[in-house]
Design goal:
about 280 residues, alpha/beta, Rossmann fold, 2 domains, five-stranded parallel beta sheet, about 50% helix
Length: about 280
């Protein structure tokens, strides 16, 4: 029997994405695992949804700009409860969040008010606890999912035996090897003369945001670099933030964009929650 994959998403705004996932995974491909896609219909009750999640071999959560129908007993959306059930069941979890800078979205498919705040909090939580991927379109989502599924369901590789002499030589080489970095890729906390908008932070405000996001990065980040990233994100300037992180951390632009996307979710959620508490409108 093929493994089952539970796809969790809001059904109407992401209907195209759900259909493309089902179509792509229903077609047998060489080297790809045989998977049965499970999609809960909009009218499916909560108990049945959670049963389907627990019986699945893996869980895929696709999040857009809509929080979704809310369970009155818990006050949480159905998609959030499905995620929590997968987490409790110990399933392999794949999370995909819409790229708000690149993905086209109809206004009717964007929550506002309280649902938007709840969705922002959920995305922020996911970015801090899961290996999140960001999708720019339905096709981009399918491509990333298919690639990730090969990793999740691939059989564990059997390591080839290595001769003791080869191990010794490898260890010796690793000990003396140093990273090669081109001059124009040297880490720097400065943004130079980049003509980009940014929100200047006072030291107390920088310390506040640093506490919220510093743990998200894969390495310890110098304050100058981190402040560049945060100030650009507060101004809605995602690509400048990614560029500053690429230079400051000495990583690839692709890796920088992924880290910045996660950081952006936490910053947005922090600002929205702060405004909701104080009633401030900027």
């Amino acid at each position: 029997m093929s493994a089952s994959l539970f796809i969790s998403s809001t059904p109407f705004d992401l209907a195209l994405h759900r259909n493309k996932i089902a179509d792509a995974l229903s077609q047998a491909k060489s080297g790809s695992p045989a998977l049965r896609v499970v999609l809960a219909a909009p009218e499916t009750g909560l108990a049945e949804r959670l049963r389907l999640v627990r019986q699945a071999s893996a869980y895929v959560g696709v999040f857009g700009m809509v929080y979704g129908n809310v369970d009155t007993a818990s006050g949480k959306s159905l998609v959030q409860l499905e995620y929590e059930a997968a987490l409790a069941a110990g399933l392999p979890i794949l999370i995909y969040i819409i790229d708000e800078d690149e993905h086209l979205v109809l206004p009717k498919h964007v929550d506002t008010g309280t649902p938007a705040l709840y969705l922002s909090e959920l995305k922020s939580h996911l970015s801090q606890t899961q290996d999140v991927r960001f999708y720019e379109s339905a096709d981009d989502l399918v491509a990333k999912l298919e690639n990730d599924l090969l990793r999740v369901f691939a059989p564990a590789p059997v390591p080839a035996p290595v001769a003791p002499a080869a191990v010794a030589e490898s260890t010796k080489a690793d000990a003396v090897a140093e990273p090669v970095v081109e001059a124009n890729e040297m880490p720097s906390g400065l943004t130079g003369t980049m003509a980009s908008k940014r929100y200047a932070l006072t030291p107390p405000r920088f310390a506040f945001f640093k506490e919220k996001v510093a743990h998200l990065f894969q390495r310890e980040m110098p304050d100058a670099v981190l402040q560049d990233v945060i100030e650009y994100l507060l101004a809605g300037n995602t690509m400048s933030a990614a560029s500053a992180l690429r230079r400051g951390a000495g990583i690839s632009l692709e890796d920088a964009i992924e880290e910045v996307r996660k950081t952006e979710l936490v910053i947005v959620e922090t600002v929205q929650r702060r405004q909701a508490q104080t009633g401030a409108v900027k």
